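Structure in, sequence out. Go:
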């Protein structure tokens, strides 16, 4: 297959559009000793564990045997004490410490052992607290309405609303404890077992032994033809693993089916949507918009992409293949671009970034034993950390913006009371993609035409991966659950064909999708985690809509800040309703897709002369 690539450009220059304050000396490693503990033997760890355990047991002792729901005054006092308990961060701090250590070094067995030990202790504590929300959920509907209208309880109205809604699907305290314990010994262990087997699978390529997950993570580093060969080897392993995966998937779906039936959920995805504090109407509007207009756009993009590679269609293995080389920004340049974008939107956002850079809150570079990827870690009472594996590229520049979007969201949300400072994935993914898209748009503006075309192509590729690809996965999961619920089992061949169908639905004629490619369900970990994949598409399109409103009227930055500071103080869809975005309307998502539509048109125009 012929390939048309642009010549590599190694130069990147950037001039800030804002006057930025001087940045102090940056640190590129987490300072765990300063912000957490000196080592796993630090005596403060056990002291903190005991502080948390005592607080929980005192709360349980005070409220588990009394009626605290028969008057607004008693309920207010109980909720105030519950809020104080939620603000005790010692238990969270030590769990984060050991978890962060396992991310820095996957071979840190001391941290893994400690993490499991404390997880076991704290899981039992969490079960002791189940009574609290159950008792509140048992309040009669007439009294529920009265309490929600009581000004004395105004601060807790949203918390009570959530509890009352969840109570419609809750079981007895004993049954809830059984479900909690059963999850880790059945559904969780199935997924963990297959993940471990998958991670240990290997292929041999050019006399080198490579782990299949290592190959999948680094596929874009290989040439166009090499990817096809490597992909075929990996898919052969996935097909071979299908015998195990079909039982794993069936076990997970049947586990969820039993839980859904017990709780009275009519749809397989209802539980996930409730857990992310979305309105089911909003998610269904999102799925419809992306499955129609969105899929039409992604099909058009892949036809353009195939043409750029001199073919009518390209192999599935090369759906993310580059069309040219971009310059490689240094870390200093990447930081400067992000600072310029952050300060340009709001001074507070730039200050958060600067503080994290100089105080050891960002672990930047890859090293032996460190996990791959990137993430943000933080909650009320513990420092906000960002994890990277930076190498000079626009991808990692944009990843810094993405993860700092999470971090800025987390820091702004700390203005909320402890019970509302955390937020769900659908809200989190909106914040992260907002900052990522603002940064990408800034880069597209300043790059020369040839580089602009390549970055635009790469940006659209990632946009589709976050939006159309995730909704295709959502649709696959709906069909998968329906098939297994109806037939009791899905064979590996049936699952592969189902995956093939849904991959084709968004890729179109520009990409060849074979049944062999359908075995990608074996390694696609998202489908083991409920229907959460919709949150990526939700976040991407709502952030695109915020950017559209901001570009139309820069004063909309105030509404953006309102969102970033809202934490989990209300239903996610109501947070956006309050800043003029109706997430329950399909029109909002169709409008959100306009940015991608415009980018595809611009790419088509730029590439028409090639």
């Amino acid at each position: 297959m012929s390939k048309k690539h642009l010549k590599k450009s190694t130069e990147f220059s950037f001039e800030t559009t804002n006057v930025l304050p001087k940045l102090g000396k940056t640190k590129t490693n987490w300072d765990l000793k300063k912000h957490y503990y000196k080592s796993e033997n630090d005596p403060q760890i056990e002291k903190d564990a005991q502080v948390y355990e005592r607080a929980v047991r005192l709360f349980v002792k005070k409220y588990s045997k009394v009626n605290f729901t028969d008057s607004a005054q008693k309920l207010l006092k109980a909720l105030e004490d519950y809020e104080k308990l939620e603000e005790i961060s010692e238990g969270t701090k030590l769990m984060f410490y050991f978890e962060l250590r396992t991310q820095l070094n996957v071979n840190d067995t001391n941290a893994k052992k400690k993490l499991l030990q404390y997880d076991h202790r704290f899981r039992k504590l969490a079960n002791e607290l189940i009574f609290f929300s159950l008792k509140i959920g048992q309040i009669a509907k007439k009294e529920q309405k009265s309490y929600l209208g009581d000004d004395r309880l105004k601060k807790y109205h949203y918390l009570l609303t959530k509890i009352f809604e969840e109570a419609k699907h809750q079981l007895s305290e004993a049954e809830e404890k059984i479900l909690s314990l059963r999850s880790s010994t059945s559904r969780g262990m199935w997924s963990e077992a297959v993940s471990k087997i998958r991670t240990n699978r290997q292929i041999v390529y050019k006399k080198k032994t490579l782990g299949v997950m290592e190959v999948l993570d680094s596929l874009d580093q290989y040439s166009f033809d090499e990817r096809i060969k490597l992909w075929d080897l990996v898919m052969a392993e996935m097909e071979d693993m299908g015998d195990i995966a079909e039982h794993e998937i069936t076990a997970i779906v049947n586990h969820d089916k039993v839980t859904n039936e017990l709780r009275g959920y009519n749809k397989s995805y209802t539980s996930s949507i409730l857990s992310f504090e979305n309105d089911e109407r909003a998610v269904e509007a999102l799925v419809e918009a992306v499955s129609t207009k969105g899929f039409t756009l992604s099909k058009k993009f892949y036809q353009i992409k195939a043409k750029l590679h001199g073919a009518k269609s390209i192999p599935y293995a090369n759906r993310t293949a580059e069309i040219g080389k971009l310059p490689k920004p240094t870390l200093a340049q990447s930081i400067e671009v992000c600072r310029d974008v952050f300060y340009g939107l709001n001074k507070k956002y730039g200050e958060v970034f600067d503080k994290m850079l100089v105080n050891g809150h960002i672990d930047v570079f890859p090293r032996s034993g460190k996990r791959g990827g990137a993430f943000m870690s933080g909650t009320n009472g513990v420092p906000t950390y960002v994890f990277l594996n930076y190498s000079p590229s626009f991808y990692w520049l944009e990843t810094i913006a993405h993860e700092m979007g999470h971090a800025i969201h987390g820091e702004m949300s700390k203005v909320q009371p402890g019970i509302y400072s955390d937020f769900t994935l659908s809200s989190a993914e909106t914040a992260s993609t907002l900052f990522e898209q603002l940064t990408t748009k800034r880069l597209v503006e300043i790059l020369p035409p040839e580089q602009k075309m390549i970055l635009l192509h790469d940006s659209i590729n990632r946009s589709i991966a976050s939006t159309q690809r995730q909704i295709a996965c959502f649709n696959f999961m709906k069909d998968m659950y329906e098939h297994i619920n109806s037939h009791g089992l899905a064979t590996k061949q049936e699952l592969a064909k189902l995956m093939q169908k849904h991959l084709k639905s968004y890729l179109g004629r520009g990409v060849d999708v074979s049944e062999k490619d359908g075995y990608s369900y074996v390694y696609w970990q998202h489908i083991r985690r409920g229907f959460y994949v919709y949150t990526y598409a939700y976040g991407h399109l709502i952030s695109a809509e915020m950017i559209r409103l901001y570009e139309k009227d820069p004063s909309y930055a105030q509404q953006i800040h309102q969102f970033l500071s809202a934490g989990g103080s209300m239903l996610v869809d109501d947070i956006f309703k309050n800043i003029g975005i109706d997430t329950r309307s399909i029109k909002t998502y169709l409008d959100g897709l306009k940015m991608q539509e415009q980018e595809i048109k611009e790419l088509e125009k730029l590439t028409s002369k090639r």
